[in-house]
Amino acid sequence: MSGGEVLAVRYGTRTTTCAESYLNWHVYREPDAAFTMDYFFWVVRDATGRTTLLDCGFAPDVGRRRNRDLLADPVAVLDALGIDPGSLERLVVSHAHYDHIGNLDRFPAAEVVMTRRELEFWSGPHAARVQFAHSTEPDELATLARARDDGRVTTFDGHLDLGGGVELIEVGGHTPGQLVALAPVPGGRAVLAADALHFYDELTADRPFFVVADLAAMYAGFDLLGELAAPADHVLVAGHDAEVGRRFPGRVPGTDDLAIRIEVDA
Questions:
Q1: What is the mean pLDDT of residues 57-75?
Q2: Are 178 and 138 in contact (CB under 8 A)?
Q3: Beta bridge partners of residue 237, listed in sequence order
Q4: Which CATH number does the domain housing residue 239 bear?
């Protein structure tokens, strides 16, 4: 299905290393190397013209504290795209890490859509354990809980069809309820992996990211993403790979080249 639009908004970046980013890097017996890790959120306009946000980036102050380079405040980029955070109707949360829900409080009217398992985990007994908590911010999880208590959170298990060619699929792995999205783009469909696939190398070289809740589910997620992206009119969009900007050269004017057009024939 086509007739929609997806923009990958590159709002942050940093330099990392293979040893810092891939689980048990030493088992591959390869030298370490530095590379660029980018930070994105995604604007999805479906076949009916409805706009949905997939994630909303890290909060500027949190990014600075965590030594991430902020290229632009996510809300400022949305403003340049003509999207008003205060009136946005729907925000999909791929998972609840700090760089994906950091600006949730700036979307007060949005319906928040996520998997039931993800929502329940972060209010459960294991969320505060260091290996999980280091990727979250307590006040941001509290904002998510308030949205739930206000009746603004819609959850699902397994699969959800949002209409207009947009589908959500629960994969787990990176977090207990990590999801991926499919959305229409010019020429076909985009497979938006978010953090089910931080870097394309995770799929091509079978190398999991170092933050993982369920390793077997992460591997299964790689397999599923490969299947979803197999058709010739589908494109795979990794969640943190600087390669996204090279694979998809189209840009939206007026966004300092931060809003990347996802197109099949890019």
A1: 98
A2: no
A3: 192
A4: 3.60.15.10
Q: Would residue 95 count as lying in a domain?
A: yes
- Band of the pLDDT at 3, cuts 50, 70, 90? confident
48 has pLDDT over 80: yes
Give the chain's domain count: 1
- Model pTM? 0.97
What residue type is assigned to position 157 of the chain? D
Is 266 part of a structural domain of the chain?
A: no
The one-letter code for the residue type at 121 is F
Q: What is the mean pLDDT of residues 28-34?
A: 98
In this prediction, residue 52 carries a pLDDT of 99
pLDDT at 25: 99
Give 168's strand partners: 160, 181
Domain span at residue 162 reads: 5-261
Query: CA–CA separation, 141 vs 92, rounded Å?
Result: 15
Cα separation values, 50 from 23, 151, 242, Å: 38, 21, 28
Query: Is residue 134 one of the residues assigned to a domain?
Result: yes
Predicted pLDDT of residue 266: 65
Q: What is the dihedral of CA 236, 239, 245, 251, to 10 degrees?
A: 90
Contact 75, 154 (CB under 8 A): no
